[in-house]
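Narrative of accomplishments. A recurring question from our advisory board has been how the design workflow behaves on a single, concrete structure rather than in aggregate. To address it, we present the structure tokens for one chain from the evaluation set, followed by the sequence designed for it. No filtering or post-editing was applied between the two.
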């Protein structure tokens, strides 16, 4: 098998058929063998039925459908797709046609034409989002890059084509909290970045809210950096130094100027100040412990209800 397309689908009933048609326009003519690996991430709509229909209506196509028992998230869907793909080159692509199959095929051609490359990654130079969101994301990447050793490229998406060597490396990372952007940087390999312009969503709407994005961003930092843990003790020691200095100044003023200190105000300020620092520190430590706890349970990254497979090359 030359090429595998991995398509995570969560409530994409209006998109899977359109995606398939669009992909067929390019791939059917291409002189390569290819397969589709659709991962139905516990959709609550008709995605499962639509995928089944696609499978039944195209008996000559290599199609794998993995139906999750519930929604496990895109990262888990990617993992399942990788485990079930057989291509020498693999592409991660969204189902909503924001990332075009034509572009995927061009990226495949780039990968094949340059034997020194292991991965071709599409990145958005101009994001289709508000200025605020763009700025927040750039700031996030700045902070992230200052904390970790591997480089995270701003705007790099999950839209990638890579060799099976890269796939094996990614699958060898068994972590439960997966952050693909980080994992791709961490495994290394020779990556070429190509620019792309995201199109409009074909049907349905995005699954990302500001809240879920923030959660994802924080778990990304936690998966790749222990800097926040160190930061907690750093902030804590600054605060302690501050309180010691403040204590000494007050003592000196008391004895030299004979001032009377409004004790209540000072107490309130000090207690809230240190209370805040203690709680923040505990919170950061607690978050890491939570991650360790979840990892130590060794839960699978996903559970598939069933897997439907047709692969003529095997
Ligand atoms: N997706 C998924 N599981 C989820 C959320 C999203 O498999 O829990 C899939 C979704 O079906 C789509 C891709 O991930 O194919 C990207 O999602 P979306 O279009 O909502 O993200 P955006 O393009 O807005 O970043
Ligand atoms: Mg999308």
């Amino acid at each position: 098998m030359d090429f595998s397309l991995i398509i995570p689908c969560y409530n994409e009933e209006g998109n899977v058929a359109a995606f398939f048609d669009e992909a067929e326009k390019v791939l059917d003519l291409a002189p390569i063998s290819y397969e589709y690996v659709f991962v139905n991430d516990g959709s609550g709509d008709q995605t499962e039925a639509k995928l089944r229909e696609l499978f039944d209506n195209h008996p000559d196509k290599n199609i794998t459908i993995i139906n999750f028992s519930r929604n496990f998230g895109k990262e888990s869907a990617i993992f399942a797709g990788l485990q079930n793909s057989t291509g020498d080159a693999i592409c991660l692509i969204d189902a909503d046609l924001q990332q075009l199959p034509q572009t995927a095929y061009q990226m495949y051609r780039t990968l094949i034409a340059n034997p020194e490359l292991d991965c071709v990654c599409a990145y958005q130079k101009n994001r289709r989002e508000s200025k605020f969101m763009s700025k927040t994301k750039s700031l996030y990447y700045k902070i992230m890059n200052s904390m970790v050793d591997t480089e995270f490229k701003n705007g790099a998406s999950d839209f990638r084509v890579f060799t099976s060597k890269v796939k094996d490396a990614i699958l060898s990372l068994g972590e439960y909290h997966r952050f693909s952007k980080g994992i791709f940087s961490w495994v290394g390999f020779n990556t070429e970045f190509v620019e792309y312009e995201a199109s409009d969503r074909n049907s349905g709407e995005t699954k990302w809210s500001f809240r879920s994005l923030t959660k994802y961003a924080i778990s990304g930092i936690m998966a790749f950096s222990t800097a926040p843990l160190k930061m907690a003790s750093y902030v804590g020691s600054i605060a302690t130094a501050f309180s010691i200095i403040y204590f000494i100044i007050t003592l000196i003023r008391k004895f030299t100027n004979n001032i009377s200190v409004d004790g209540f105000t000072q107490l309130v300020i000090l207690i809230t100040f240190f209370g805040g620092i203690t709680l923040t520190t505990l919170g950061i430590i607690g978050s890491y412990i939570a991650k360790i706890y979840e990892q130590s349970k060794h839960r699978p990254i996903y559970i598939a209800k069933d897997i439907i497979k047709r692969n003529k090359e095997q």
